[in-house]
Amino acid sequence: MVVVERKELSFLERIYFPAILKGLRITVSKMFAPRFTRQYPEEPLPTNEVTRGQPRLAVNEDDTIRCVSCGLCEAACPAYAITIDGQETERFIEREPERFDIDMLRCILCGFCEEACPKDAIYMSNELELADFSREALVYDIEKLKRPVSALQDRIDYIKKINDRWQTSSST
Amino acid sequence: MSMLLIWLLVTVACYGAVIGTAALMTLAERKVSAAMQYRYGPNRVGPFGLLQPLADGVKFIFKEEVIPAGANPWIFKLAPVLTALPAMLAIAVIPFTGVIGTFEDTVIYGSIANPEIGILYVLAVSGIGVYGAILGGWASNSKYSLLGGLRASAQMVSYELSLILAVLAVVAMTGSLNLHEIVTDQSGWLGWNVFSQPLAFMLFLICSYAETNRHPFDFAECEPELVGGFHTEYSSMKFAMFFIGEYTAMVVMACLTTTLFFGGYLVPFWEGAPWWIGLLAFGAKTSFFLLLFIWVRWTLPRFRYDQLMHLGWKVLFPLALLNIFITGLWISFGPGGN
Question: The complex's ipTM?
Fold first, then answer.
């Protein structure tokens, strides 16, 4: 049998006041400590090039879209969020999407579309906010998805770096 | 006619100040607790969230009012009133400041009324407050409410005894029940009653926490055991009435602590300060005790119920009696005695 020896409390300990004052001192000192809360809408979540946000379509400097509507991202998408209809174009790439919808409510931000894309046309941006009043408004069409290359440059560089490392390590 | 006007003005000012403070206390409670937990607290409604009490009030008014089946509707509706009203009645005699001036040979005091039995009146009306809790708990037809009401009544009755005995020591020292006289009696170097009656002050402070159902004695509510205690079944403005009553009682208790033990509206080292300076001094002292209410709540854990009763009857009550005895000996045989 285990017998726990308990220390007899002294008078000061039994009237509790020193302990209470110590507790009050701790709580008041915490009042002036830095606060953890992020004031969200004013103070957004910090993002960087590794952030895998919502997919966006890259648009070149001359306002042409890089996508050739090959359908690889559509096939790679595990959530069936992407719908593409292609059409012909006079440009050198010969094909471009007539319709490119991403259902943001289905998208799981996995980044498979970015990996699948052979033309470096779709990238995971650092945009994370998704709120609207109807489900229909959250099916983004091609105009909503277009982003200039300059806005996505950090991510493009990062993906290039990752891919380069992959290629060098497998060739050696 | 104009005397009536002055009286009306003083009344509106006193009630407005106390109930406004009670409303701000609900905000201060959340702000201070947030600061102690590395948070910000409400800061969206108005600058620094100052309009939050207003938003809460509007929300309460628009909430659906639910009366549970099997509840006694009349007593159910009466209980919130019985909680809020006594706390507000006690405001009437609190001396917010000294003599403001004279008007047609009538001295205008810094309180709504200045009866000779001031402190007795406060104790009497705040004693009614327990009925709100016990009737609300009983009329709700809910076991949690009933237990909360029973606990509230047992606790308030046992702590009121020590509270009154602590006040009695002050009254014996002063020789008056009039609150203005109790304040003016505390003038001078170390004249505050807290220096001559430290034990009575500690007893009064502890009992005032129990009387207002605040931590660490909030057994009437006791969320983990009784859901919400006596106000579990209440909703809408009736629930808000319980809250207004609770916070007004806190303000009244803080005012009383200031008046009885910290020289009320007296400013240290400045005899004969103008009345508005006295008002500011009173406000500052009371604010500290209001802050202490919140500060203690977010520091100490709740007692166990038997510990509460043990503390009330076996520690505080004998100490209060001892204090009365020593005070009596001092008055009779001390330097000022006969």
Answer: 0.73
